[in-house]
Design a protein that fits this description.
With 955 residues, the chain is of the alpha+beta class. The protein is built from 34 helices and 25 strands. Helices cover 40% and strands 17% of the residues. Strand 4 and strand 5 form a beta hairpin. Helix 4 packs parallel to helix 9 and helix 10 crosses helix 16.
Length: 955
């Protein structure tokens, strides 16, 4: 579970850089004819995945793994402790995760929020997560800040307890409980509890959720904290991975200096776990505030060290994970009784969970669809997959691994890959052995694994629309719902605890060179399409984005949702390929094509393996230039979008995102539409095939296009390929589309709009105002001031609502990077009984920031340091570069904009930040949307002092 999210994008990001991830899991159609070369062999893809490493162990038992990657002056630091919720005794559920939070709140020689210190040194990709088998902490830092990062990690490994106080424990208990409420407030939010209870016997170490129960979290004591730390957080139960701009000799010296004196902990004791089989099929019906009935099929299957798991993973991909999967082709495309399917494995150390889901199309008989699902599964287990299906699934897996390893850190990078293998398997190179198994898989081996594990008794769960039952709520361990205070108001304030010992001075940060942004090269195709290229050759991958000046702002106001339907249909059929052929061809190539809309642009993106680049570009061009808009596919996708809109009306954040924009911009403004980009129910129902073709001809055309390329190629190499695929594309005769940005003169007074969401365990607050600044104004000082107010993890809002009061898991402000008028958005999911108080507190924080308590010198310094020092780690991958190039293009900035940023930041003063914020932000104009249980929330809102209205989402 993530320690804490960075500020939300809130659906108004101007760039939809799509298809920058790898393809998803796929029956067969006759291959479409192509004049491109055959896809690369699986063996060659396996050979392309390599993470050389060296390892050593300190005398205290700390295992250290080092990988050198000099592409950027950054080092990923990843510390994995071999302890998670599986190790929690009865009555202590949720404790591993609660302790993870406490690890971020200071140690004896570095007290205070850890994440503030990380931002000080320009850390990127930082977080902490807890799962059943492990707890990890990771950050990517500039090379010059490595000593500081190692000092901080060593201090919390060896010197934590003197800094842990009752006050910190109480606050983080409240934060974790609000994280739990936030998860349960989502549609299908109680499913995990039901699955674990049904499939695992009482006392099984995996039976309880990692987030834990409210009662157990309330019972956690300081003594529990101390015992957990002493038992599980010794260096001999940890793995440290350093990946990036470092070598093993340097690593040995630094790690010995900072970690060598930490004494070993107790000998780690494993908690074993069986892989149970249900005695017979089990079924359960739940109800929830959902738009579509979801059918689940679940099994407990072996853990990551079983040779069966890669085979089973491929079996699930073929059945329901690939975009051309059996379930997709039959239930979604063919019989049209489902609007979404999935099949996947959640892998853990001792066991894994196999899951198939089907979202039933509204109006269809869910029981009949369930019987059809079971029939298809039985047929699949009897006959097995085809050779082509297995190869496509394996290619997708290998392609995804290659793309993920472009980063040294983060959630999927090289440091995580090595650490996971070391902790779960005692082998940092486990990833390579798994890839060999994927590449060598056959229909026989995949079919045998599927029959062995999926032929056992199954847990069938159905979640249907309706009210949650008391029984289902009790599964979450929420019988004890009560407020979590910073301290109990009926008791004396907790003592501050023993003062920490004399501090060891923090190591200085060595000089960090300013960002050197790769050269951006320009060219033009013979039909006038501009090309922008930047090279990043770390992995054999190329990313392409064809950007059009369109986006959701170009949507048809009379038929909102037209733009989204157009992009959704691009890869669902062309004049020469049907949707299955397009999906299968992507999978054979290890490519991914996807289209999407930001607010200002429509982007069709390609992720391609270098050996398969030409064939992948041929497919991309066909999708963009020749969409069929087949009437059958139009109706199928229309149904999916309508279900999506219905689903949005059940989720707190999308509800607010749909309601707020017209209140801010007015109905006539191009941005005055649902930020979700899905349109309206009436608009999606009204759009015709002719409307879709007209939108494509008006907006997705060569004289409205720019092509961006990054990755392992050169401009000289890519230009002829682009010329071949796009150079002869001619614009249609009709006029190119244009957008009219004009504000009306309507007054939009501050008020609160309350949307009733019965049974909500939490309230979602989303507020907004218009700043009067445009993205093309490049208001960098204002954006930097926003970091202080609510944009960073140490901002005023998060430190008040989360860290001081414990009322929220996350909170903050956002200024999305749109081209025209920028809004300020304020968000906070808060516990229900503190909804009114949270609005009052947020209004006070914002007002004080803009008047009596402006930016301090310390806040300015931390913000500027973070912005400058984080730049090298912000453009590590080809995807990062692509996004930066596209932002510069959209906002009219020069190619060297990011290289000039450090100088611009250094010149900013606290006075500059305050001036920019006070000119642009009038807190008395904030319009507040609250989504929560009205009978509990409404009485709190009168104290806020603003008019309160009832909001609805009719369309």
């Amino acid at each position: 579970m993530r320690f804490f999210p960075r500020p939300l994008t809130l659906g108004l990001c101007s760039l939809a850089v799509t298809a920058m991830a790898v393809p998803v899991p796929a029956m067969s159609a006759a291959p479409a004819k192509t004049n491109a070369a055959a896809p690369a062999a699986l063996s060659s893809l396996v050979a392309a995945v390599n993470i050389p490493y060296e390892q050593f162990t300190l005398k205290n038992g700390l295992r250290v793994i080092v990988h050198t990657d000099r592409k950027a002056p950054v080092v990923a630091v990843s510390v994995w402790y071999h302890v998670g919720s599986r190790f929690e005794p009865a009555g202590k559920t949720g404790f591993a995760h609660l302790f993870e939070h406490l690890m971020f709140y200071g140690s004896e020689n570095a007290d205070g929020p850890f994440f503030g210190r990380l931002e000080d040194i320009g850390a990127t990709d930082w977080n902490g997560t807890t799962w059943f088998d492990r707890t990890n902490y990771f950050e990517t830092v500039p090379t010059g800040a490595l000593d500081r990062a190692l000092f901080l990690e060593a201090d919390r490994m060896g010197h934590l307890l003197g800094a842990v106080t009752q006050a910190k424990l109480d606050t983080q208990r409240g934060v974790v409980q609000n994280e739990k409420r936030m998860g349960e407030n989502q549609p299908y939010g109680l499913v995990e509890y039901a699955q674990l209870a049904a499939m695992l016997p009482v006392g099984h170490p995996y039976r309880h959720s990692t987030i834990g129960s409210m009662a157990d979290l309330n019972a956690a004591s300081l003594a529990d904290v101390q015992n957990w730390f002493k038992t599980h957080y010794g260096p001999n139960n940890a793995v440290l991975v350093l990946a990036g701009d470092i070598d093993v000799a340097t690593a040995k010296a630094k790690v010995e200096k900072w970690f060598g004196a930490i004494p070993s902990g107790p000998v780690p004791k494993d908690v074993d776990a069986t892989v149970p089989t249900l005695p017979r099929d089990a079924e359960k019906l739940m109800h929830d505030n959902v738009a579509a009935t979801r059918l689940y099929r679940n099994w407990i299957v072996p853990g990551v060290n079983s040779a069966d798991l890669p085979q089973l993973d491929l079996a699930m991909a073929v059945f329901g994970g690939l975009k051309s999967s059996r379930l997709d082709n039959i239930l979604v495309r063919g019989e049209k009784v489902a609007v979404g399917v999935s099949a996947s494995i959640q892998p853990f150390e001792k066991l894994s969970i196999a899951e198939i889901t089907v979202d039933v199309k509204p109006g269809q008989d869910a029981a009949a669809v369930g019987r059809r699902l079971d029939q298809l599964l039985a047929d699949y287990l009897a006959k097995g997959p085809t050779a082509d299906e297995v190869q496509r699934a394996a290619t997708r897996q290998l392609s995804g691994t290659i793309g993920g390893l472009e980063k040294v850190g983060g959630f999927s990078g090289k440091a995580v890959t090595l650490a996971e293998g070391a902790v779960y398997s005692g082998d940092p190179g486990k990833y390579k052995k798994d890839l060999v198994l994927y590449a060598a898989a056959t229909p026989q081996s995949v079919g045998a694994a599927a029959r062995k594990w999926l032929g056992r008794p199954v847990f069938r769960l159905t979640v249907a629309p309706g009210e949650r039952s008391a029984e289902d709520n009790a599964l979450a361990g929420n019988a004890t719902h009560r407020p979590a205070f910073f301290r109990d108001p009926k008791k004396p304030a907790p003592s501050a605890g023993t003062p920490p010992p004399t501090k060891v001075p923090e190591p200085a940060i060595e000089p960090v060179k300013d960002l050197e942004f790769p050269e951006v090269e320009h060219a033009t195709l013979k039909n006038g399409i501009p090309i922008l290229f930047a090279r990043r050759a770390t992995v054999p991958v190329v990313r392409v984005s064809v950007a059009f000046d369109a986006g959701n702002a170009a949507d048809d106001k009379a038929k909102l949702g037209t733009a989204g339907l157009v992009t959704a249909l691009l890869d669902e059929g062309t004049r020469s390929r049907n949707s299955i052929q397009i999906a299968e061809e992507q999978e054979r190539l290890g490519a991914s094509i996807s289209a999407g809309n930001g607010m200002d642009t429509t982007n069709v993106g390609l992720y391609a393996l270098k050996p398969n680049l030409d064939a992948s570009l041929e497919l991309l061009a066909d999708v963009i230039r020749n969409p069929a808009f087949d009437p059958k596919e139009v109706e199928r996708l229309r149904g999916q979008v309508l279900t999506r809109i219905a689903a949005e009306k059940t989720e707190p954040m999308p509800i607010a995102q749909r309601l707020l924009p017209p209140l801010l911009y007015g109905q006539a403004h191009p941005y005055g539409i649902p930020f979700t980009g899905s349109g309206t129910e009436s608009g999606v129902k009204a759009v015709t095939r002719a409307d879709l073709a007209a939108f494509h001809g008006k907006w997705l055309r060569p004289d409205n296009a720019t092509i961006f390329v990054t990755g392992d190629t050169t401009l000289a190499e890519i230009l002829p390929l682009l010329e071949k695929r796009f150079g002869d594309w001619k614009s249609p005769q009709g006029e190119r589309g244009s957008k009219l940005f004009r504000m009306d003169r309507m007054m939009r007074p501050a008020r609160i709009i309350l949307v009733d969401k019965p049974q909500s365990p939490q309230s979602l607050i989303l507020a907004g105002l218009l700043t009067g600044k445009r993205g093309t104004d490049n208001p960098l000082t204002l954006l930097t001031a926003n970091e202080v107010l609510g944009g960073s993890s140490t901002s005023r809002l998060i430190m008040d609502l989360r860290e001081t009061k414990g009322w929220a898991y996350s909170a903050g402000t956002s200024m999305p990077g749109v081209k025209e008028t920028i809004p300020l958005l304020v968000y906070a999911p808060v516990q229900t009984d503190k909804t009114g108080d949270s609005i009052i507190a947020a209004r006070k924080d914002i007002a004080e920031f803009l008047t009596s308590k402006g930016t301090t010198a310390a806040e300015r310094n931390q913000t500027i340091n973070s912005q400058i020092l984080s730049l090298p780690g912000s453009f590590e991958t080809s995807s990062d570069l692509l996004g930066a190039m596209m932002r510069n293009w959209l906002l009219g900035r020069p190619d060297d904009f990011y290289e000039k940023l450090p100088g611009i930041y250094r010149a900013m003063t606290p006075v500059d930040l305050d001036k920019a914020a006070r000119e642009a932000i009038d807190p008395d104009r904030l319009i507040w949307v609250v989504v929560g249980d009205a009978k509990l929330v409404r009485p709190q809102l009168d104290a806020v002092g603003l008019p309160v209205e009832t909001g609805t989402l009719a369309d």
